[in-house]
Amino acid sequence: MIFENATIITMNPRREILTHGAIVVAEKEIVDIGKSKEIIEKYPEKQRINCNGNVILPGLVDTHVHTAQAMIRGCADDLGLLDWLFKRVWVLQGSYTYEDGRASAALCALEMIKSGTTSMLECMLAERYGFDGVAEVMIQSGMRAAIGKIVMDLPSYGKSENQMFPGMVEDGETSIQNTLIAFDKWNGAADGRIQVWFGPRTPGGVTPELYDRISQLARERGMGITIHNSEVIEDQDYAHSEGCRSAVDFAGLHGLLGPRSVLAHCVWTDEEDWKVLAQTGTHVSNNPASNAKTATGIAPIHGMLQAGVNVTIGCDGGPSNNTYDLIRDMRLVSYVANLREGDPTVVPAESVLEMATLNGAKALGWEDITGSLEVGKRADFIVINMDAPHLTPAWDPVSTIVYAAHGSDVDTVVIDGQIVMQGRKVLVLDEKAILEEVNRRYRQVAKRAGLKLGSRWPTI
Ligand SMILES: [Zn+2]
């Protein structure tokens, strides 16, 4: 199959942008890439898809996702983090059934595909969401998914006095064993599109001894670990109480850093931490929309990038963002980082697009497979429809997409050589059925949770 007549942002080592370009896909791979005219002459027999002068770029990689939170989007707007968590998010999530977890993951996958995300890292998939159902949905969606299964043995959060909602509590032994069972069953499934990771809770939810066990088991199996770190300033208080200089140091002490680790947030980190993150090859997921919404701070990504840390982008969850549209978040990555430094030049559009593609692929251990458009890599790419007022004129396709595009500008999505969306119609999931099911289920979850949610204004 040939995708012809496109402006191709290759993200190759020379960062070439190809005008009037074409990509040749055979089976799952990119087998050729070049000028449309030459490609068509070279492969006259191949089926052609006309991209109408639109932009092709690598599929985006979201490195911090909570699939179970798609169905509770907007459930805790304008609340402080502890009320947000203790009174809404955990109460609702703790009332889920396996079927709710599956329906929410389907909604999440649908939204990610429709906004150009082709690979994702799930963090903290709890027992009650049903691992198997979520893995099945991700396989059906055609996406690449690293799924971090929750591990925990304490029902608290940091040094907070509040206790976790009972429906969310798991014991250490079960959560470890079920992660290993899920790993044996699903890791490498769908021709390698599925990975199973450890997704332990933050300090306060896991004893230091259990962290040691997680890191040892992960090393033995080559498993990834993803964990929230330094999201809130209280993480530092916890680290200090454990005799560590910082939350990053605490993670290092318990084997949670390294090239198979992704730390989400890293807002409250300093120069010493960045050195450690860079030296250990630990990846960082920057979540600017979530951090801004919960007012937890601005991650110092300029400093991290300067120190050589691999910084990537995450949307986080439905109650903290409130979307899984990575394109919408790309501009925020640049805006808030520049605002923090008081300098509009430090995190430019090119850096943001690298974070959303190449850096994300590297964090998930898929840098040889995805993240750029090069011969030999898997065909993971998206076509952005540039025929729109808000994308006109487009002097520079990179900055136009980073600063002006929306997820809904994505027209076509190809993952592993499979067209999963074309003309905005998702071909692998039943969009209508998923929306109907979610609309039915979210009210039932709120009812079971004993919560009445709705507008704060009189609704008549
Ligand atoms: Zn999160």
What is the terminal separation in angstroms?
54 Å
* Low-pLDDT windows of residues: none
List ligands, each type once.
Answer: zinc ion
Helix percentage: 25-40%
Please provide the count of β strands: 17
- Major sheet size, sense and barrel closure: 9 strands, mixed
How much of the residues is beta strand, in percent? 15-25%
- How many helices? The count is 16
Q: Strand pairing plus helix content: what structural class?
A: alpha/beta
**Cα-based radius of gyration, to the nearest Å:** 21 Å
Average pLDDT works out at 97
Q: What is the overall shape?
A: globular
What descriptive keywords fit this protein?
single chain, about 450 residues, alpha/beta, nine-stranded mixed sheet, 16 helices, globular, binds zinc ion
Can you describe this structure?
By secondary structure, the chain is of the alpha/beta class. It contains 16 helices and 17 strands. Strands 1, 2, 3, 4, 5, 14, 15, 16 and 17 form a nine-stranded mixed sheet that branches. The protein has a four-stranded parallel sheet with strand order 6-7-8-9, with helices on both faces. Helix 14 crosses helix 15. The longest helix has 19 residues. The relative contact order is 0.16. Zinc ion binds next to loops.
Summarize this structure briefly.
With 460 residues, this protein is an alpha/beta fold. It has helices at residues 36-42, 81-93, 98-114, 131-141, 172-186, 189-192, 208-221, 234-241, 247-253, 271-280, 288-293, 301-307, 326-341, 349-363, 397-404, 431-449; strands at residues 2-9, 17-26, 29-35, 48-50, 55-58, 60-65, 117-125, 144-149, 194-198, 225-229, 261-265, 283-286, 310-313, 381-384, 410-415, 418-422, 425-426. Helix 3 packs parallel to helix 4 (131-141), helix 3 packs across helix 16 and helix 13 crosses helix 15.
